[in-house]
Structures are given as structure tokens and as C-alpha cells.
Amino acid sequence: MKRSLTGLQPTNFLHIGNYIGAVQPAVALQSDTQLLMMIVDYHAITMPQDPKELRKNILSAAATYLGCGIDPAKTILFQQSRIAEHMELAWILQCVAKMGEAERMTQYKDKAKKAEGAKGAEGASVGLFTYPILMAADILLYDTEIVPVGEDQKQHVELARDLAIRFNRDFGETFVVPEPKIRAEGARIMALDDGTKKMSKSAPSAKSYIALTDDADTIRKKIMSAVTDSGTEIRTDRNRPAITNLLTIFSVATGRSIESIELAYVGKGYGDFKKDLAEAVVEYLGPIRGRILNFAADETELKRILAEGAEKAKGMAAFKMNKVRQRVGVTL
Ligand code: AQP
To answer: Is the minimum distance from the CB of 156 to ligand 1 under 6 angstroms?
Structure first.
């Protein structure tokens, strides 16, 4: 069986963009690949986190994965920080990666702008800069072939590929070279309050995203207040990112093609469109929300599932690290 792996940061409640871009594709991979699903808590601390909130968010991420359909009988569901080999391999890969490569990562540039009182890169943590290399370690440690991610993470998976190829060339065949798996539609869901920015869990305004735990009324309110572009037509257009984004969400939530939705709203206004979109999203997320809340109510069970996942992941990671240490020349 091929191996696939994905991870999400427990930085807040997961949103519909995370679900469409990363979780749903991962759930679909469970039947024909060995999926590893991580809660990447050590990625989360690259930006300041309140420890109490982080702990809550880790458990809520576990409940969310399960509510979205991750099945612990098939999938190894675990917390990244439980497996010290991720950090060990990240160090070795930091010594393989080049400064220029790390500096080209666009997510680092974007997030550094938001760091520490907008001091830019000066105020960003060093961890934010090396984050993509830790992500490469997460992937390469498990001989991952497929990495289902949203569009924003494509560059990081490409870095993991480059590091695997370079390590294999310099130290001998060790790592599988992974492939990103990015869905054709919905790989980049944009913020509801700004069609030019991607939807983000850590956005300052909760109006910009639909959390998977939002109730029906909150979803309706957020969609009704979503920005739309100038003009009145309901159709996709590169220059009208907000309405294009709403059409994409409508299409993914209902399984209808964008063209058929555009056709259905010819001559109708944004109000009708948004009302129907809100109902479609409520229907799409409602059952997931119910399951998330059920799983979230049993902390003991969540911890048990995570501990079981960590034990399985640990065995795989330890095996790989033994080989890596030998290749690098530190095993005597
Ligand atoms: N807007 C999005 N549309 C589609 N996919 C998305 N992903 C994130 N945002 C969108 C995908 O979700 C996975 C989890 O990403 P992450 O938690 O590691 O961090 P991120 O990419 O930085 O996501 P957020 O939501 O923007 O979190 P914060 O605000 O904490 O930085 C990835 O596969 C990502 O592609």
C-alpha cells in the first residue's frame, strides 16, 4: 500500500478551507493508502500560542479529524510532538537545506509580516523560518509518497522533494521522494471578508472564516456578510475573486459544477445566491459538526486514540532515523 501523510496546525478551530483543501482529500485516501494524519503542534508554536489554548486546540483538532471521517482503525492519527525523531531529522535536513531555499518560501514571508508587532522578519521566530524543513522531516520520516495539501503548501512539499533527492544523492538512497496531491477545485479557499487573502484559522476576524464547529446561524450570518465584488453578475472571473470564491464553495458543498450554478443564478441577485449558499454550507457541514462535538466530549478517548497512534508512528520513525544516522555517519 502507498503511504500518504498530512498535518494541520492546532492554531484554532479548523475551517472550511482546511476541510476542503486538506482533510477531505486525506479522508478519501484512507481506503487505498496507509494514511498518517498528524496534529502538527510543533509547527503551531512557530507563532506565539497560549499554552492553555494550545492544549485545547490539540484535543479539538483530534475530535475534528475524527468528526471529518478519519478512522483510527485505518489511519495513524497522532501528535507530532510525541515523536522526537521529527525534530532530530529536521536538524539533519537543516544542514542539507540552503539558506536561499528557505528564504524563497512565500508562506514564511507572509507570516513574518504578521509576527511580533509587524516588525517583519526581524520579529519572526527562527522556527517560522525553518518550519518548512520540519515539515520536510515530517514527510520524509515515514516514506510518504502522497501528501494531500492545499495550494499554499505546494512549495513546502516541493522543498521536501528537493531535500530528499539531495540527501539520497549525497548519502545514498534513503528517502522516498513525495508528491503533493492538490485538488483541482477548492485547493485555495479565500477569506470571506477579503477575496484576495486565503482563509486562515489565525485571521484576526472570525467573520473571515467558517469554522467546522460554527452552528447553522453563525454560518448564515457569516455568508450573508461575506464581501462580494463590484458588479451584479454571479459568475467566476479572475478579477472578481470574492464571488469566484463563493461559487467555488457552493460547487464543492453541493457537488454541482460551477457552470450549472452560474446558469441557475442568471438574472438573480447576490441576496438570493448567498441565502442558497448558506443553506448549502449548513447542510454540508452540519453532520460533521455534530460528530466533532460528540468526539470532543470524550477527552479520555481522544487521548487514548492519540497515544495509540503515537506508538505506531514511533516505531516507523525510529526505524527510519536509525538508517539516517548511519547514512550521515554518526552511528559508531
Ligand atoms: N484557505 C485554504 N484553502 C484550502 N486549503 C487550505 N489549507 C489551509 N488554508 C487553506 C490547507 O490546510 C492544511 C492545514 O494547514 P496548516 O494548519 O498547516 O496551516 P496553514 O496552511 O497556514 O492554514 P491556516 O488555516 O492558514 O492556518 P494558520 O492561520 O494557523 O496559519 C494545509 O494542507 C493547507 O494547505
So the answer is: no
